[in-house]
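Quick one, T. Sequence first:
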Amino acid sequence: MNCRNRRIQITLLHHFLGEVKMNKALGIDVGGTGIKGAVVDVDRGVLLTERHRIETPQPATPQTVAQTVSQIAEHFEWNGAIGCGFPAAVQQGIVRTAANIDESWIGTNGADIFSRATNQPVFLLNDADAAGMAEMRFGAGTDTDGVVMMITLGTGIGTALFSDSKLLPNTELGHLLLGELTCEQYASNAVRKKEDLSWKVWGSRLNTVLCAYHALFWPKKFIIGGGVSKKSHKFFKHLDVSAEIVVATQKNEAGIIGAAVHAFELAS
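Structure tokens:
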């Protein structure tokens, strides 16, 4: 055997061994308009496949959402742990609230419902918590001690709170009252669009929300995510809360990555 062929064999062997040892999980992110998933390398925090997205069924009942989650698992021919970020407060797999999903979810064991639908072990957590876990492990929160708060700006306002990288789950501070309105009714990106607010006015509203959060928890860093974070240069200049403010780096993949990491660690 010549040296070139020997090198090719060694390269293929290393590639094969790398795949065998790779720690993977399927991450799924349930949203109000779409449910998407991908296989994730949980050691590096990167997607190993293209994201697969299916429209969120309406109404988003336990049965219809479970069918969609099952379709995503079948798309990847997945056999193993599945992590699922879910738009609700979740306690030990039990759904306690309903945001952008049908109220019939409240009180159900969402983890069991998805596990039965997929015939795989499913681990459920709040969707903002999943995104925050990805940012703390692989993104803008890496190696940051003290209190850090992840904010996702979209239809509502999602929050994830960490102290020395440890998650305090289910904060759901978008529903915190700020006067007569909740924070997300006052300053979500959906409100900006609906009321056609200028970046200055909306930035001022968002700053009021961040100051309220800061007064409660004193985070040293806010990580701002959601699609609008790509336009941070238009509104960051209107934020003067007494904390570091940075843009999330994991973008639309954060919820999938965080959910997959959560599942792998609980299943191991």
